[in-house]
Design brief:
The protein is of the alpha+beta class. It has helices spanning 3-19, 76-85, 98-106, 144-155, 178-203; strands spanning 29-33, 38-42, 56-60, 91-95, 111-115, 132-138, 163-166, 170-175. The chain is globular, with a radius of gyration of 16 Å.
Length: 204
C-alpha cells in the first residue's frame, strides 16, 4: 500500500477515534512510518476528530528531529522508539480512554494480564482465549526521553507486543499498518472494558 493511502487511512482512523471520545480535548497522538528514516506524526494541540493530511509532521526516527520546525505531539519520543524497536511496525496510535486510564491506576503490577476472553484473538498471533496476554505498565513521566529509555531497557529483556499502558495516562499500541493498529486498539479497548467491569463486579 502506498504512503498516501496509509496516511488517508490514518486520518480516517483519527476521525473514528475522535467520534468515540478516545482522544478528548486534543489529547492523544497518531503516526505512520513514512520510510526507514522518517515517520509522519500528528501535530500538537489538534483535535484528533478533525485532523487532515496537512496536520501530520515529518519526524526523523533516529533523532526526533523535525525538518519543518513545526511542533509534533508531546509523546514524539515514544512513537520513534516503537519504530526503532520494531522494524515491522507501520503505525502507532496513542489514546486517552477512560478504560485504559482507570485500569492503569487500579492495576498495581508491572503488567495488566488479560486471559479468558475470546476477543484476545483480535491481537496478531493470538489464537486462544486460554493464553495470557500481558500488557506492560509503566509509570507516567513528563520526561519523555527518560521514559523512552526506560521502556527500551524493559523491551531488551521482556517481550513487548501490541501496546503498553502509562499509569493514569492511556494506551499506546501499534501494528504493521493502520488497519492492524486500529484493530489492536479496538480489541484492547473491548478487553479493557470487560476487565474493568469484571473487577468492579467481583469487588461488590
Amino acid at each position: 500500500m502506498t504512503q498516501t493511502s496509509q496516511l488517508d487511512q490514518l486520518v480516517s482512523a483519527c476521525h473514528w477515534i475522535g467520534e468515540r471520545g478516545w482522544a478528548p480535548a486534543t489529547g492523544g497522538n497518531m503516526s505512520i512510518r513514512q520510510d526507514a528514516e522518517f515517520c509522519l506524526l500528528s501535530e500538537s494541540g489538534k483535535d484528533k476528530g478533525s485532523l487532515t493530511r496537512d496536520d501530520f509532521i515529518q519526524v526523523k526516527i533516529a533523532s526526533n528531529r523535525v525538518p519543518s520546525g513545526r511542533k509534533p505531539s508531546a509523546e514524539t519520543g515514544l512513537h520513534t522508539l516503537i519504530y526503532r524497536l520494531f522494524p515491522e511496525a507501520g503505525a502507532v496510535l496513542h489514546t486517552h480512554t477512560v478504560n485504559s486510564t482507570v485500569l492503569s491506576r487500579v492495576e498495581k503490577g508491572a503488567a495488566l494480564e488479560l486471559q479468558g476472553y475470546e476477543m484476545q484473538k483480535t491481537l496478531a498471533g493470538q489464537h486462544s482465549h486460554l493464553d495470557c496476554v500481558p500488557i506492560a505498565l509503566f509509570d507516567n513521566d513528563q520526561d519523555i526521553d527518560g521514559l523512552a529509555k526506560h521502556i527500551e531497557q524493559f523491551a531488551a529483556q521482556n517481550p513487548l507486543r501490541y501496546g503498553f499502558l502509562l499509569r493514569g495516562h492511556g494506551l499506546t499500541c501499534w501494528g504493521k499498518d493502520v488497519n492492524e493498529a486500529r484493530r489492536h486498539l479496538e480489541g484492547l479497548e473491548f478487553l479493557f472494558q470487560c476487565e474493568l467491569q469484571r473487577r468492579v463486579l467481583e469487588s461488590q
